[in-house]
Design a protein that fits this description.
Distance between the termini: 59 Å
CATH architecture: Orthogonal Bundle
Radius of gyration: 20 Å
Number of domains: 1
Helix content: over 70%
CATH class: Mainly Alpha
CATH topology: MetI-like fold
Shape: globular
Order of helices and strands: HHHHHHHHHH
Strand content: under 5%
Number of strands: 0
């Protein structure tokens, strides 16, 4: 009997799309929060990072309240005959929600380690905020941003609870690797579950190790340039 790689393909598709979305949103939020000095900073930061400490099923429930058939977004989309629940789009949304705090906090830490005087010096030259961000701050903080992206990718790949609630386990459509592991275990097929565990373990390990080697290479390259 041939092995069905569909859950792996679905997982990679969902993970790549959600990581791209998380990268843009997380980077934007971290940059804005680094610049923001208002009294509500702690509150806003807490709201953004809340999914990091909440059970994934709670995050999934909140998503259902918004995009379910009785939710405000779900009702609006229903006017155009668009349904997100129990589709791979729902799996992407779940992955974005649970992985965004990792991207945000790690990227924010990278920005906070920068010397603000460098960005201020660029502003005195009359450059735009976009130029300060793209040409000054982001290149300097890139090792931390790259690490944040890798962590976000790995977290999205392993997402289970929220995905199961909003996307279900439809073979060939929404069944990701973590969901496939769960149902293989429930049915007593431990060999299949072990295969999927090793696959997701390998993908995650290769991602993180590659990022560590890349960061080490960049650090060594930077030291060589200084010398």
């Amino acid at each position: 009997m041939s092995f069905d790689f569909t859950p792996a393909l679905i997982s990679l598709k969902v993970t790549c799309v959600s990581t791209a979305i998380t990268f843009v949103i997380g980077l934007s939020l971290s940059w804005c929060m680094w610049q923001y000095k208002g009294k509500f900073k702690a509150l806003i930061d807490g709201i953004i990072t809340l999914p990091l400490v909440l059970p994934p099923t709670v995050a999934g429930f909140m998503i259902l309240l918004l995009i379910g058939k009785n939710g405000p977004i779900g009702k609006f989309l229903d006017l155009f005959d668009v349904k997100i629940i129990f589709s791979w789009y729902a799996a992407v949304i779940a992955s974005v929600v649970v992985s965004l705090p990792l991207m945000y906090k790690t990227a924010l830490s990278a920005f906070e380690q920068l010397d603000p005087n460098i960005a201020d010096a660029a502003r005195t030259l009359g450059v735009s905020e976009w130029t300060v961000f793209s040409k000054v701050s982001m290149p300097l903080a890139w090792p931390g941003i790259a690490a944040a992206t890798a962590l976000s990718f790995s977290r999205s790949l392993g997402e289970f609870g929220a995905t199961l609630m909003v996307a279900g386990s439809i073979p060939g459509k929404t069944q990701t690797i973590p969901v496939a592991i769960y149902f293989a275990t429930q049915s007593g097929d431990m060999n299949l579950a072990f295969i999927w565990v090793m696959i997701i373990f390998s993908i995650s390990l290769v991602t993180l190790v590659s990022m560590n080697y890349w960061n080490q290479y960049q650090f060594t390259k930077k030291l060589g340039t200084r010398r």
